[in-house]
Amino acid sequence: xxxxxxxxxxxxxxxxxxxxxxxxxxxxxxxxxxxxxxxxxxxxxxxxxxxxxxxxxxxxxxxxxxxxxxxxxxxxxxxxxxxxxxxxxxxxxxxxxxxxxxxxxxxxxxxxxxxxxxxxxxxxxxxxxxxxxxxxxxxxxxxxxxxxxxxxxxxxxxxxxxxxxxxxxxxxxxxxxxxxxxxxxxxxxxxxxxxxxxxxxxxxxxxxxxxxxxxxxxxxxxxxxxxxxxxxxxxxxxxxxxxxxxxxxxxxxxxxxxxxxxxxxxxxxxxxxxxxxxxxxxxxxxxxxxxxxxxxxxxxxxxxxxxxxxxxxxxxxxxxxxxxxxxxxxxxxxxxxxxxxxxxxxxxxxxxxxxxxxxxxxxxxxxxxxxxxxxxxxxxxxxxxxxxxxxxxxxxxxxxxxxxxxxxxxxxxxxxxxxxxxxxxxxxxxxxxxxxxxxxxxxxxxxxxxxxxxxxxxxxxx
Length: 462
What we know:
Blueprint: H1 15-22, H2 53-56, E1 61-70, E2 75-92, E3 97-98, E4 100-103, E5 106-109, E6 111-124, H3 125-130, E7 133-139, E8 142-148, E9 157-163, E10 166-176, E11 184-192, H4 202-206, E12 211-219, E13 222-224, H5 235-239, E14 247-250, E15 259-263, H6 288-296, H7 300-309, H8 311-321, H9 325-331, E16 370-372, E17 375-377, E18 382-385, E19 402-410, E20 416-422, H10 428-433, E21 438-440, E22 445-447, H11 455-461
Helix pairs in contact: 7-8
């Protein structure tokens, strides 16, 4: 489990979400080194030594750009965080490296562990506007030997943990944005400068890398501008921001704008962990209840291997063993309305509509219409997606994509939602059969008049 955040820390409000980013995919169920899904690790926010970047198809630097509106005397707090990979090998009493050493039925074996590293800085915004600020990132090579003892106190072997030297830097710049307001474009570059052999295998390169690299930013007076949903006056300047291998979102409580989390994982503004999620399961997109129950169902032998795999896995198992029935009841499900309403269709019996035709006979998504730019659309129309603010951040990847309207739906509050399938999606027909679509507001669409024949045309011709 992660240590509780220091309440005196001005960035503490983001600590839990930042830890979830840091450990996303760190170790996957069933949390054993021998599991195939744990054979290829470190998938997010990896900044490798520059000499290995091209061959490994991994970046050696990330860039974050966003806008801020500082007040007089504002101080920007910066916390760059990443994992440094620590190699762990097991040796026998003669110092020979062994693949595995079993002592009193407990396995001991090699593994790569992740050590949390942080770079802290507090920079007056006025000073930052006058000159760039460069902060060094350093990590010394280390080697630590930890004896392994059996029940009688005999030492049949030991763990040897090694880290490789790493070097890099974080560079902050701020430039004024033209306009009537005092707005700055903040740029943060995080760079791995470690010198390495370009032919290093991936495992060795990762031991010289910055892994799960992300940044927390805090402004004591003033506000950051949302990159996902900027005000109209800031939209052109936000569009000019360049973000590479990092995406900034407003963090902390909704309605505030003094904290930012720049993450290698695309999030929406103000990401929060569900209060029902008490344990770090290393997969923030999974279902806590399913993972918890499946982990508790592991055999004693599997649990021993999981505990031996990584200290974080041992902490996870201890936490799950300590959970009472009340906590599992909380995991079972909570409905929390919010965000853009989107209908969730259910799998229908073949030959029947996937909506409920008995709920309101005046509503028929297969024939209802909506106005898009003054043009009436219905099932079979072809549109171009123009995702707007307030939706899923990943919808931005679909901007400009052609889609076929599958249904027009009305919610109880009078809102209109258009269900679509992507024209170029090879699985569109299968998803349509099950009533699985993407949903957009009419103002997030434009009519495509030069479209190919609609789905209804194709269906009629078949």
